[in-house]
TrEMBL record:
<keyword id="KW-0406">Ion transport</keyword>
<comment type="function">
    <text>Subunit of the V1 complex of vacuolar(H+)-ATPase (V-ATPase), a multisubunit enzyme composed of a peripheral complex (V1) that hydrolyzes ATP and a membrane integral complex (V0) that translocates protons. V-ATPase is responsible for acidifying and maintaining the pH of intracellular compartments and in some cell types, is targeted to the plasma membrane, where it is responsible for acidifying the extracellular environment.</text>
</comment>
<dbReference type="InterPro" id="IPR005124">
    <property type="entry name" value="V-ATPase_G"/>
</dbReference>
<keyword id="KW-0375">Hydrogen ion transport</keyword>
<comment type="subunit">
    <text>V-ATPase is a heteromultimeric enzyme made up of two complexes: the ATP-hydrolytic V1 complex and the proton translocation V0 complex.</text>
</comment>
<feature type="coiled-coil region">
    <location>
        <begin position="31"/>
        <end position="58"/>
    </location>
</feature>
<protein>
    <recommendedName>
        <fullName>V-type proton ATPase subunit G</fullName>
    </recommendedName>
</protein>
<dbReference type="GO" id="GO:1902600">
    <property type="term" value="P:proton transmembrane transport"/>
</dbReference>
<dbReference type="Pfam" id="PF03179">
    <property type="entry name" value="V-ATPase_G"/>
</dbReference>
<keyword id="KW-0175">Coiled coil</keyword>
<comment type="subunit">
    <text>V-ATPase is a heteromultimeric enzyme composed of a peripheral catalytic V1 complex (components A to H) attached to an integral membrane V0 proton pore complex (components: a, c, c', c'' and d).</text>
</comment>
<keyword id="KW-0813">Transport</keyword>
<comment type="function">
    <text>Catalytic subunit of the peripheral V1 complex of vacuolar ATPase (V-ATPase). V-ATPase is responsible for acidifying a variety of intracellular compartments in eukaryotic cells.</text>
</comment>
<comment type="similarity">
    <text>Belongs to the V-ATPase G subunit family.</text>
</comment>
């Protein structure tokens, strides 16, 4: 009997070892299946992310084209608009220049009514023009009296010429800034307003 019980124990041990190996195979198969599912899920997620990124990039480019169009065309259009505005301002200033000169002469001579002083239309001689240029130079050299809130009045720190020079410089800088932009400021503002809606 002891031999038979020994054999029974041997068979029991063999069965246990077989069951353990089978359990190990099941665990390994489950791990492999889990890793395969994780890899598949990761691949699907990366694919969805890539598709979403491509969609959003295409949407952004479409909106950018709608709001700004071709940047070269915008720069050219802005240059043309600026040139047209400058020409319009020149034409306007030429049309009122005589009135402005007359007003300046009245102010310089202390008269506020009617024509007085030197009239360039009546006397276009070089002496008359020199006299007018001299008057204009004097006016540009002057410093205005400025009113201060609760502080009375004071003489301005800058002459009229310095103020005019500063203003001209600001206009030139603004024109340069606008000509260097890829898209006009208006396009950015429209794009932002469309997003807010």
């Amino acid at each position: 009997m002891s031999m038979e019980s020994n054999r029974g124990n041997q068979n029991g041990i063999q069965q246990l070892l077989g069951a353990e190996q089978e359990a190990q195979h099941i665990v390994n198969a489950a791990r492999s299946a889990k890793q395969a599912r994780l890899k598949q899920a990761k691949d699907e997620a990366e694919k969805e992310i890539a598709e979403f990124r491509a969609f959003m990039e295409a949407e952004f480019q479409r909106k950018l084209e709608q709001t700004s169009g071709d940047s070269g065309a915008n720069v050219k259009r802005l240059d043309q608009e600026t040139f047209a505005k400058i020409q319009h301002l020149k034409a306007e200033s030429e049309s009122i220049s005589n009135d402005v000169v007359q007003m300046l002469l009245r102010q310089a001579n202390g008269s506020s009514f009617g024509r007085c002083g030197v009239n360039i239309d009546a006397d276009p001689s070089p002496n008359n023009v020199k006299k007018l240029v001299g008057i204009a130079d004097e006016m540009l050299k002057q410093k205005n009296v400025e009113s201060l809130l609760f502080g009375g009045k004071k003489i301005a720190e800058q002459s009229n010429f310095q103020k005019l020079d500063w203003f001209a410089g600001e206009l030139v800088q603004e024109h340069q800034r606008r000509s260097c932009r890829i898209a006009p400021t208006v396009a950015f503002k429209q794009h932002l307003t469309n997003q807010e809606k």
